[in-house]
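# step 3/5: fold
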Amino acid sequence: MRYIEPHGHMVSRTTDDYIAMVTSGCQAVCEPAFWAGFDRSSAQGFYDYFCQLTEHEPKRAAKFNLPHYSWLCINPKESEDLGLADDVLSIIPDFIDKPNVLGIGEIGLNKNSKNELTVLEKHIQIAAEHDQLILVHTPHLEDKYKGTRMILDALKNDSRIRPERCIIDHVEEHTIGMVLDEGFWAGMTLYPESKCSHSRAIDMLENFGTDRIWMNSACDWGISRPLAVPHAALEMRQRGHQNDWIDKVTFQNPISFMSQSPKFKIKG
């Protein structure tokens, strides 16, 4: 099969993961900026991380003939410190023109706090001013519905933002409807212990259709599976879905969304 991994934190993965992904048919990987598993203490730490995402990780992926794209932000978990957030936000424009940067992400909310919302709105302003795509992290568990509603409202409050250029990630059964109904893209994250199982994700596809939806592994330093997307494709086949239906979700849809950035180039 062929597929795209549209949300994988490869700086935390091994080269064996790259080999396994390419062997399984991965055609490109996209890496949003995220939490490192600990709170960074300075903007310099983020500067080095952005260099890793835009210079060093693409070179590592290229050793396995895998195109690597990235997104930039300060993640919601580290947005409570407004001073640090402003310092990090100030350096993001310096990296936006890098050839593998697709946009701003993964921005969003973690605990739905006032400071997180303030930093989210500032990220949205940067995206609007620089005409960037947006990738959004929605909070987990009991705060997901409320946080998703807050995020959609923040995006809609800026008239420069077009919903079709924003993907709302980590949707679940109780949030996917509002995301799609308001014109945004929806990302389903396949995690072994949280977010979506393969079966739940396929259920949502069967209920909501395959338009403006993608699947991703969001593989990182925690318990996660970099081959979650091809494994889900296998389960789709076992349910009787045809190759064209599977290919649309796992390959064509990520291309359709990310090709809104002229930097994203891959053979369809």
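# step 4/5: annotate
Residues 213 and 252 are 10 Å apart (CA to CA).
# step 5/5: archive (pending)
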